[in-house]
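Checked the freezer inventory, then went back to the computational side. Two predictions to log before the end of the day. The first one is the construct we discussed on Monday; recording sequence and C-alpha cells without edits.
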Amino acid sequence: MKFSAQARTRARRYCMQALYQWDLSGLDMDEIQRQFFEAEDFTNADGGYFIEILNGIKLHIERIDTYISETVDRPFGQVDPVERAILRIACYELLFRHDIPYRVSINEAVLLAKKFGAEQGHAFVNGVLDRLARKIRPAESPGIDKQVSGS
C-alpha cells in the first residue's frame, strides 16, 4: 500500500510522541507501540513507517545518539526530550533511509519542532540536522548552509 506524504508526516508525529514516552517512562518499545495502535487513529498515518522508525531507532539507538551527541552543543541528556525525539527520527532517516532526501528529513523535523518543541527549538533542530546531514550524507549535502522551512 502506497501512503501519502501526509501519512508519513503523521507517522513521524506519532513516532515523536512514542519516543518521548519511551524516553521519559522507560516502558518497553513494543508496549508503547501497542498502546499507540490502540489509542491513536492510524487511518491517515503510515503505520508501517511508524513501526519501522521506532524499531530502527531502538535497534540503532547507540549509533544514533552518538551522532547526535557529537553534534549538539550540550550534553545529550540536557537536550529537551521533545527535540531529542525529533532529532532521533531525523538522524535515523539520514542514516538508513537514503530514499528520503535529506532536505525532507530536516524539513519534517523542523516542522515538528515548531509545533511541539520549545521556543526556538526549531532553530536548534535545524542547526543540528544541518551539521548531521553534512557528516552523514556529504555527497548529497556538500554546501548546505541555509535554514530549511523558512526558519
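The second is the one RB wanted added to the comparison set:
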Amino acid sequence: MKTNFKKITAVLAAAVLSTAVLASCGGSDAPATDSNASDTAASTNGGELVMGTNAAFQPFEYVTENGLVDIYDGIDVAIAKKIADENGMTLKIEDMEFDGLIAAVSTGKIDMAVAGMTVTEERQQNVDFSDTYFTASQVMVVQADNEDIKTAEDLKNNKLVGVVLGYTGDNIVTDTIGVDEANITRANRGIDIVQDVKNGKLDAVVIDSATGKALAEANGLKVVEDPEAFDSEEYAIAVQKGNTELLDKINKVLAEMKASGEIEELAVKYNSEVGIEE
C-alpha cells in the first residue's frame, strides 16, 4: 500500500481484475513435513476454522480490547471471519511467530495462514495459496527529522537497519540491498523494531507499507518510499498442500468480496482507524 491512500484504491481495483498469483519477495520458511490434506486441524464442512497469524501487523491483524474475533482485529481477521461465516464455521485464531506459520499450515496445526503473507516460490513449495487479495510494497520508517535516508541505497552507508524476522523486508535488506549483516537488527514484531527507531537505537526499519505508515503515524516518525528499490508484492492465504476443498471455499469468498468492493471498504475502515488518511 502506498502512503497516498488514493494509490491504495487503485491497486486494490487492479487486484480485483487479476486472479493471477504473482511471485514476490519474502523471507525463508520452515519446510513442510510429510502430511496430507485430510490431516488439517478442522473439517471444512462446518465446525471450527483455525486461522494462524502474527497479530502484530496493523492494520491487517492486531490485538485490541474489543476485537472482531476475541481480542483480534484487522483487515485479515475480517476477511477470515467472512470466510468462516459464509461456510457455517466458527473462526478460531492462533497467534504465533510469523516465521512458523508455513510449518503450522503444512503439519495441520492450523487450517490456513492469513497474515499479510506474500506469495513466493519458496513458500509455494510447502503450501498452496489462494487467489491474491491485496497488493503492497515496502517502505522505510525513520525519525521525523532524518534527512540522510532518501533511497534504499542510503541504508548501505553504515546505517543501522531493523527488520521483522521472516518478513519481506528481511529478505530485501539482506539480499537485495546488501546491508552489512552487522548493521541489521531482527525482531519478531514490527511494533518492537519501530520503537528502536523512535528511541534512536536504529536509523531505519524496512517494513510493509500499510504497517509502516500506521506505526510511523503512531510514533511520530515518517515514512520514506523508494519505488525503484521496492517492488509491489501480493498477499494471499496459505493452506495445506492438496486441500482443494478449503481452497475453493476461500477463493469463492475472496472473489465475492473483491467484486462487491468489500475488501476495499475494509482497507478504508482499518486504515482510518489506525491513522492512515486519504
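For RB: The mean pLDDT is 84. The chain has nine helices and 15 strands. Let me know if you want it refolded.
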